[in-house]
Amino acid sequence: VSLWEGESNLRMAELLDQKASTQRSLGRPDEAVASYQRAIDLFESAGAVAKVAEASIALSYLQAWRLDADSANRTMERAHRLVVGQDPHLQSSVLSMRAAIMSASGDPANADRMFDEVRALHRTMKVPPRGPSDLLEAIHYYQSFQMEKVAVASPRLAAACRAAGDSWNASSVEFYGLWADMYCGRPGKGAAALPAAISQAEKIGHQGAVWALKMGASIVSAAQGDLIASRQQTADAWEFGASHDVGWNFATSIQRGHFALWSGDLPEAESWYSHGLKVEGKSYLSGLSEACLFAAFAESNDPRTEQAWTRRHFKSPVSGQLTSLGVW
Questions:
Q1: pLDDT tens, 259-292?
Q2: C-alpha distances in Å from residue 43, one per residue of 1, 92, 128
Q3: Which of 292, 290, 287 is nearest to 260 (CA)?
Q4: What angle do CA 276, 278, 281 make, to 5 degrees?
Q5: pTM of the entire structure?
């Protein structure tokens, strides 16, 4: 890249895109975001719309992992405007990613409508591009608490990605399936697959997946009755997430709050739940920290229970209505 510094052409954009991918794998997200943004600007100037779409998808995924829903949405809105009227395959990829980001930011109903648009696009094609859109829709299923669908789709998609040499997306979707199995009461199945999944994610530097899998290990230990191991694994996941700038690490603080509450330490539990409240932002887990804090007050007969209920922002599930995981 240094040899081409100062150039503003397609070759420089391609080098910056490759640099961003490397920085992402090395755990340098700030630098990766800046490189992707520069690459996208140059791709757009060169009229390389397909390259803009590809780099935008990678950037928005990184932004979503950092819990920056607004930036991720802006990235995909820009890409979507550029691909309207272009190749339907390109539109499918961009619209699918935009829908997944919408779902991640806590708007599953609009995300579902966007995936309907993707399916409508596919009906206009002789050979629809099933892979990318299926992967992103599986993530949407998880974010909207459709766990049996995730448990079926995720292993198949992870295997297909690995067969195609796409290790990054394989790790990106694999852990959702393991978590879905745990939500569906099958912790043993998830436990058996965790070591290999963690090893694969570590090998390619997918820090977000490593964090999620570490959290999964703590849930498995708790489900198997080993609360000592689970508490230590939760602390390890927290430290890993904090040191690798994983935005979703606030979910670990909720788990740490549970352990504090189970130990009878309400002030510590309150501290952990309150941390989640401060950083959860617009996400499919929004409301979970607040609901846990209310439950902790109620369980402890704390006088603040009534006030917490009166001032609550979290919602309850509505029968027949698609809702984010955090609502449940």
A1: 999 889 999 999 999 988 887 777 888 888 989 9
A2: 15, 19, 26
A3: 292
A4: 85
A5: 0.83
